[in-house]
Structures are given as structure tokens and as C-alpha cells.
Amino acid sequence: MQDSSIKVYKGLEGVYVAESDICLVDGQNGKLYYRGYSIEDLAERSSYEEVCYLLLHGRLPNKTELESFKDEMREDRDLPKGVLDIIKHLAGRAHPMDIMRTAVSALPAYDKEAYDNNEGANIRKSMRIISKAASIVAAIYRFEQGEDYIEPDYELSHAANFLYMLKGEKPTDEQSRLMDRELILHAEHSSNASTFSCLVTASTLADIYAAVTAGIATLKGPLHGGADEAALKLIIAIGRKENVSSYIQNMLKNKQKIMGFGHRVYKTYDPRAKIIKEDLLNIEKKANTRIKRLIEVVLEVERETINNLSGKGIYPNMDLFSGIVYQYLGVPSNLFTPIFAASRTVGWCAHIIEYMQSSKLIRPLELYKGKRDLKYIDIDSRA
User: Closest Cα partner for 94 from 323, 305, 294, 338?
Assistant: First the structure.
């Protein structure tokens, strides 16, 4: 007999699983804070490296601390030959997220502190993971294209170096800043599916590499990390501004999900989407014809969908716009989710470190609905 008083919260919706000082997502008011700082201020005035310091250490650095932190991140960028061999072998055979997951899982073989779970060691390992994750994404792309791996340029910022390792050309200041803002906006977002996956793994006292590997595996799913690529595919499929109304109306009629809209937490406009939309409007004047057309279409999709769904609390999220910024930067769509993962490594690591300070094994309950006390029948007597 089942207990009728038991309530099952599917997807753990509305269930608090931990306490944290790292991030606040205010879904009702459309606000996002990293360690108490608004995402608007950080995107406008900070850098990805400074945001990494903030998330890992709980405060903003002074000038000396930031320069030292940047130097350490630069030193951690290059990849071991063994990891490069793994990437090269898998490139073109597997999904980039599968390659990234496998490459990150191999990193502890080259880290003397791999299995040291004290806080200082985990912060140092976090910096290695963050720095190397971007290099892994660049290496995946290079090997997929049949090109050689490009070694890091230690004079460049994290964002600029990633674009350099990807394309082999030093980016402009504008390109570097656009990439930097994307990384900041993707760096952290409280207890989402991939972060929770990291915490589940960390709660077993597995090492931080194992926990981040779990996060990458979780982020691969299209309901979490692949939405920006799906949103771009929608914009490309629509093709022209004049097609938007009929296309969206047909999707709504057939109850199809419009990628880039709606969010599990936000019940109003995603604040990150507003920032990326500003970037789109700024690049529209200088973009080529293809990018301009994509921007025209996405802005019309935004207008049409809000007119139809805003009454239901469904508004744009950052995935609607970010793919077009990546296209402007020359980033192929199959790298969108790996870049998301590379930028989110800092958020994952911050949560893992915080949770390990008072770790408790995560072991939820499950309401059993099956049969009991069935009679075992020998195989020869079964129908």
C-alpha cells in the first residue's frame, strides 16, 4: 500500500537541495547576480578572468591579485600531448561534446594534485580546467578541419586567445570583447541541471575532474546546452523577415516548442538576452548581408512570439540571440555547446568547491509503484 501523503516533485522542481553564496537567479524580476554583483555591471565593466576570480574566491580581486590570477590562467592553457592525441583520434568521429567530455576526463592523468580534495588544490585545479577547456574546444575544431593545433598566445586575454587558437588569427578588440561578454554571461547560473549533476558527483567525494566531466555530459542534452544551436537553426529555416509571422503561427498551431523562448526559472525577459540583444544591434551596422538578415529575422521572431506568448510568461532567453553573435565571430554552430561548457566550468567548479566544504551524499528517494512479492518461476516453466 502506497502512502498517499507522499508528493513527488518531478524534475525536483521547487525543491531546495543546498545553500549557496554564489549565484541568485531572480526569475520573477528578471535579475541575475554573481556573488551579489548584477550581470549587467559584470558584462559591461568586468572581464571573464575577473569573473572567474570572483566566482572562485567570493570577492573581486585587487589589481595585483587579478594580474597574478591571469598569469596563472595563461600558464595553464596548453594541453598535454596525450590529451591532444585523444582529441585528434576522435575528431570527426564523435560529437564535439563527447570529445570534450573525454578530453577533460583524461586531464587528471597529467595533474599531480588530481585527487587532492582540499580547497586550495581544488581552486588551482579549477584554474587549470577553465584554461584548458577553452583550448580543448579550439583543438577539436582544428583537428576536425584537418588543421594543426595552434599553441596558446600568452600575451592575449582568455577570450582573445580562444579565438586565436580557433582561427589562427589574432582577433580585433571588438571581437575579443564580444567573446568575453559571451563567456561572462555563460559562466554561472545557479542550480541548473549540469550544476546539480556536478554536485551529485562531488557529493560522493569524487575528484573535481570527475564532477566537471559529469557536468559536460549533462550539458550535452538539447533541453539544456544545445538550445542556442537549435534557435539558430530555426532562424535560418525561416530565412526572411517576411516569413516569420506565418512560420511562428504554424509552430504555435502545431504546439511546437520555439527554441530560444521560455525558461524554467525566468518568468520575464532573461537579463542575459537583453545584453546579447544589445550586442546584436551594435554589430548589425557592420555585419555582412547574411548576418544582417539573421538579425532582421530574429528581431521579428522576438516580436511575433512575445505578442503571442508573453501572457503565458514566456519570453526570450539568451539562446535566441547568442548563436548569431557566434556566427558573426566565425564560430561554427557545432561548437556552441562546447563553448558554453568551457565558459561554465568556472561556475561548476565554484559550486563543487562550496559544496565540498560541508558535503553530504546526495541520495534522493523514489516512490516505488511496481508490484511486490511475485512468485519466481523457473525458466523452463515460463511461457
Answer: 338
Sign of CA dihedral 334, 41, 27, 273: negative
How do residues 289-323 score in pLDDT, each as one tens digit?
Answer: 999 999 999 999 999 999 988 788 889 999 999 99
23, 155 Cβ separation under 8 angstroms: no
Specify the long-range contacts of residues 371-379, CB closer than 8 Å, at least 24 apart.
none
d(CA 295, CA 302): 10
Q: Using alpha carbons, list the distances in angstroms from residue 231 to 115, 226, 234, 262, 372.
A: 39, 9, 5, 12, 46
* Measured distance CA(194)–CA(217) in Å, rounded: 8
Q: What is the pLDDT of residue 39?
A: 98
Q: pLDDT: is 321 or 3 the higher one?
A: 321
**Active site residue: 78, 95, 116, 224, which one?**
224
1 pLDDT above the threshold of 60: no
Q: Note the pTM of the prediction, 2 decimals.
A: 0.94
- Whether 224 sits among the annotated catalytic residues: the reply is yes
pLDDT band at residue 2 under the 50/70/90 scheme: low
373 carries an active-site annotation: no
Q: Considering only CA atoms, which of 265, 272, 261 is closest in space to residue 187?
A: 272
Task: Give the Å distances, CA to CA, from 26 to 31, 34, 54, 189, 365.
Answer: 5, 12, 20, 11, 28
Per annotation, catalytic residue among 186, 263, 270, 351: 263
Q: Give every strand in the sheet of 37-38, ordered side by side.
A: 23-26, 31-34, 37-38
List C-alpha distances in Å: 133 to 73, 236, 316.
11, 29, 28
Strand partners, 94: 91
- Say how many C-beta atoms besides its own lie within 10 A of residue 248's C-beta: 22
Query: Of 341, 344, 343, 294, which Cα lies nearest the Cα of 320?
Result: 294
The residues, any chain, with a CB within 8 Å of residue 111's CB and separated by 6 or more, are 125, 128, 209
| Strand ranges in the chain using DSSP code E only, listed in sequence order | 23-26, 31-34, 37-38
Q: What digits encode the pLDDT tens for the residues 98-143?
A: 999 999 999 999 999 999 999 999 999 999 999 999 999 999 999 9
Provide the pLDDT for residue 168: 96
Q: Catalytic site residue 111?
A: no
* Burial group, residue 312, by CB count within 10 angstroms (0-12, 13-18, 19+): exposed
Place of cell 554589430: 283
